[in-house]
């Protein structure tokens, strides 16, 4: 076999054939959820100024330090392929004056993100994501609304065994004191910390709480817990959120190690997990509140909360849970022909069928009728419509039911009506 000249870039995926119906299933159910919950679609560029993510996501994060695709363009600008949605959506919110719309503003987006991560199952360097944001409201009922939208979507897809993990990362009032307590705790073990966690301890101590380092994880059990160091406002927010989730009958677990990987989170952070084929990487949704982010990016103070959910992970989980999405619509009619004059009529008839809303395919080339009927059977069409010189002379077509093998001649003006009735 000849060696391939070109192959896809490491960490990228081709979405082919049968996988496309899973993607379509997820996106159709997502659109239904967005309509039910009142979210409006927003699309932002794949390319943004690199400084937007450096400022918004945070210099101490793995995304900014290790994973962003950054380059200088021909104008000398430093650009980045977007590694996450929220900072770009906030930039669009500020630049387009969306603050003038009545709050809360509910936005959703979908599309590709790019991170130079270690390639593994369910984690790709280009992955696609569903992203939801609610802006302009501090009410913890909004947090419950956002989590409820995610829970509804995954339930609507048929996923089972869903688990909501919940925590609070405080606010500028109580977070600094907690971070200092956390830092003091880990400094007594600094000599045994892996190099990455030593760096996190210096730059962003909260990131140690979601470390993947085996040497560090046992130390987490006795680390200070955020919920024990919340100010009165943050404690009240978390308490009300728990009440509202219970009112929605959404079960949850307080997860003291949950901080998420982005600097902009305040108060609520959450993840939704689902059992599947990803093992420990079973998170299918994660997000939280970011009440200071828009102000950090140059906008007026505006509270917000959002989440992201990777479509590839959802698809892998659907497959692992043996959830079968609907198959694509089969053509109702397949048009076959014999001769050039009949081919012209076949083209005309196929267009008329589609104009009438009837899924239709036709043959191509100059193959035998037997070969064309094999193609009709492979297409899973219900009817084969056959046109030859004799049929043209009589202004009829032969319609064969590919299920019963019965066939009859139908005049040109009655073709669409006959096929439509036969679909019932």
Write structural notes for this entry.
The chain is an alpha+beta fold. The chain folds into two domains: 17-174 and 230-320, 2-Layer Sandwich (BirA Bifunctional Protein, domain 2), CATH 3.30.930.10; 333-423, Rossmann fold (3-Layer(aba) Sandwich), CATH 3.40.50. 36% of the residues lie in helices and 21% in strands. It is built from 14 helices and 16 strands. Strands 1-5-6-11-10-9-7-8 form an eight-stranded mixed sheet. Strands 13-12-14-15-16 form a five-stranded mixed sheet, with helices on both faces. The protein has a three-stranded antiparallel sheet with strand order 2-4-3. It is elongated. The chain starts with 16 loop residues before the first helix and ends with a helix.
Tally of helical segments: 14
Give the structural class.
alpha+beta
What is the helix/strand order? Answer: HEEHHEEHEEHEHHHEEEHEHEHEHEHEEH
Question: Superfamily at the CATH H level of the largest domain?
Answer: Bira Bifunctional Protein, Domain 2
Judging from the principal axes of the Cα atoms, what is the shape?
elongated
The order of strands across the largest sheet is: 1-5-6-11-10-9-7-8
Largest sheet: 8 strands, mixed
Highest CATH level, the class of the largest domain: Alpha Beta
The CATH architecture of the largest domain can be named as 2-Layer Sandwich
Query: Which regions contain 5 or more consecutive residues with pLDDT less than 50?
Result: none
For the secondary structure, the number of strands is 16
């Amino acid at each position: 076999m000849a060696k391939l000249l070109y192959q896809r870039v490491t960490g990228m995926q081709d979405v082919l054939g049968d996988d496309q119906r899973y993607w379509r299933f997820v996106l159709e159910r997502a659109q239904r959820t967005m309509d039910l919950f009142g979210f409006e679609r927003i699309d932002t560029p794949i390319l943004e100024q690199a400084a937007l993510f450096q400022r918004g996501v945070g210099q101490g994060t793995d995304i900014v330090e290790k994973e962003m695709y950054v380059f200088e363009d021909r104008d000398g600008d430093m650009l980045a392929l977007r590694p996450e949605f929220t900072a770009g959506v906030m930039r669009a919110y500020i630049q387009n004056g969306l603050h003038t719309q009545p709050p809360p503003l509910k936005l959703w987006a979908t599309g590709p993100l790019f991170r130079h991560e270690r390639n593994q199952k369910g984690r790709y360097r280009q992955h696609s994501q569903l992203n939801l944001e609610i802006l302009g409201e501090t009410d913890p009922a909004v947090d419950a609304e956002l989590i409820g939208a995610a829970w509804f979507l995954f339930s609507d897809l048929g996923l089972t065994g869903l688990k909501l993990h919940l925590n609070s990362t405080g606010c500028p009032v109580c977070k600094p004191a907690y971070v200092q307590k956390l830092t003091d705790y880990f400094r007594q073990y600094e000599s045994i910390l892996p190099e990455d966690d030593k760096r996190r301890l210096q730059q962003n101590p909260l990131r140690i709480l979601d470390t993947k380092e085996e040497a560090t994880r046992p130390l987490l059990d006795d680390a200070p817990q955020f919920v024990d160091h919340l100010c009165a406002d943050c404690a009240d927010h978390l308490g009300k959120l728990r009440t509202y989730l219970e009112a929605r009958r959404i079960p949850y677990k307080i997860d003291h190690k949950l901080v998420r990987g982005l600097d902009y989170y305040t108060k609520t952070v959450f993840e939704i997990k689902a059992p599947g084929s990803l093992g420990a990487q079973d998170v299918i949704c994660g997000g939280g509140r970011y009440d200071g982010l828009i102000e950090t990016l140059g906008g007026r103070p505006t509270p917000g909360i959002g989440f992201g959910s990777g479509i590839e992970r959802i698809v892998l989980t659907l497959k692992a849970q043996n959830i079968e999405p609907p198959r694509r619509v089969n053509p109702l009619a397949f048009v076959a022909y014999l001769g050039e004059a009949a081919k012209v009529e076949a083209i005309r008839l196929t267009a008329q069928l589609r104009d009438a809303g009837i899924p239709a395919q036709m043959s191509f080339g100059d193959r035998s009728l037997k070969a064309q009927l094999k193609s009709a059977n492979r297409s899973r069409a219900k009817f084969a419509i056959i046109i030859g010189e004799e049929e043209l002379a009589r202004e009829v077509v032969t319609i064969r039911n590919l299920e019963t093998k019965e066939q009859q001649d139908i005049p040109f003006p009655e073709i669409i009506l006959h096929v439509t009735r036969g679909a019932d």
